């Protein structure tokens, strides 16, 4: 046994996830079983590549590392999500259970969506006299939505009624709010009751109706499905259908353990749903619901404070890392802010792809070129372990959670969610034993903000690198690779100033190619360029380590460096000249090449300007040049 099971889910169905995982965890603790939850946030309005980057999360776990897996299949917005998981885990022969949605060859545990919605509809007709009822759908093609809608139709048919209208929807608060707002403003005839495929849509309808002056349930009844947290503390409390999710979670874990022992026994089990009448249908809310609303409203201010703290946290983190020039700055500059990160608990880590901060052309082969898992070696950009911040390091993504090992007698819960910005895969965040963000949508908020911060940080890092490259090009001589005249002014001259400020003696050497005009006129400018390049190379090769070089003019070169022993400079310069000449002799050039070098010593207490020092070195060089030219003339070189 690996003593760990995998859960796969979309992060949008918070209430469903919270209660089902709560039930699973309760049973897992009895067996000392670790739970690994992999969550994505795909939507129908995001681009194909955005969703592919999200789904890359499902390629992270190795099926062989798990004893079994549970798919919260009903939470997915498309079949592509479940197909990725099934293709990997079923191929590996790992026992799996699907929740709510049937998948060929896989055991199924589902809630009886039908009878709870049937009872709700019959209640509206028989108790509240509803005759004109409209149904607002969830996603088109969603299995649960289809079953709930059919239950409404069948219950109405029992009393010789039919749907007054059938409206499209998307399971969301805002989408439902906007679409029904357009209906009302176009003169839509209000029905007796609006039955929504879930509570989110019911809340959207109630909000809109209140804005338009309608009273629920006096003017129109509104109902939902799922019995979510938000629907239980509103005015009115939403009449809904409960799926007894905590019990469902416990049963799912138990049946998975059975499936692990009997992998060939494919089964289907159904758990009943229950209609919960309440204020939005005209009934009295239960005392439990009223108490729940009271307690929730009493703590709303603290919930708002948590949201505000999270917003301030990201603002501070953005400011701290906004001028980062390397990925390590996320820790170095953001550590004090990250150390106070709210709501993630004492154990979590941010793992990133090495290429994200290193390869500017990471998507050169097209968006989302890596959509089949994460790199084998990843950077732990930030980790908090037992409340202590850990210095960044590299780890193997095969571990999933850095340093993971199962501890006998313990049951831990690890949550993994992808980090990506549009088509750029950043990495993932992993959280240990702290589900609060997952259960209230704040994990998605956290991820969206973190994605933006990391991507902006990446953009600044590469902008800074490009600026450095451009600056190097701007200050570098193309022929010789040393500083050009601009580079001399920005680097070499400032070096001399810094030496003086640090009370150090400097040398400024000036070199010039002898008889350069003759080389150009007789041997051509290509050979002239060769002479300049060879001189620059030799000047650097045979000068003391630490000197900085620049091309001052056509065939003139300048160098600056520390002068530790002024008394030995004459001999050192002569050695450089002789070594350069010997080096030129080995190049088999078609012309004789020689360079003269002059210099000046600059003491810290001198008050001269850089122009004064160059002039002194230039005069020294010309005195040497005249001497060399006399030798050349006398020897016929």
Overview of this protein structure:
This protein is of the alpha/beta class and 637 residues long. It contains 19 helices and 22 strands. Helix 10 runs antiparallel to helix 11. The model has no long low-confidence stretch (mean pLDDT 91).
Head-to-tail CA distance between termini: 88 Å
Beta-strand fraction estimate? 15-25%
Shape: elongated
Number of strands: 22
- Bin the helical content: 40-55%
State the secondary-structure class: alpha/beta
Overall radius of gyration: 37 Å
- Biggest pleated sheet: 12 strands, mixed
Average pLDDT reading: 91
Low-confidence stretches: none
Number of helices: 19
Secondary-structure topology with pairs:
Elements: E1 4-10, H1 14-30, E2 34-40, H2 48-55, E3 68-71, H3 79-89, E4 96-99, E5 107-112, H4 113-128, E6 133-136, H5 143-158, E7 165-167, H6 173-185, E8 193-196, H7 199-211, E9 221-223, E10 240-242, H8 245-261, E11 268-272, E12 274-276, H9 287-298, H10 300-321, H11 329-338, E13 348-352, H12 354-358, E14 377-385, E15 388-390, E16 393-396, E17 413-421, E18 424-432, H13 436-439, H14 442-475, H15 485-501, E19 506-513, H16 516-523, H17 525-542, E20 548-551, E21 556-562, H18 569-585, E22 595-602, H19 610-635
Parallel strand pairs: 1-2, 1-3, 2-17, 3-4, 4-5, 5-11, 6-7, 6-8, 8-9
Antiparallel strand pairs: 10-12, 13-14, 13-18, 14-15, 14-16, 17-18, 19-21, 19-22, 20-21
Helix pairs in contact: 1-8, 4-5, 6-7, 10-11, 10-14, 16-17, 17-18
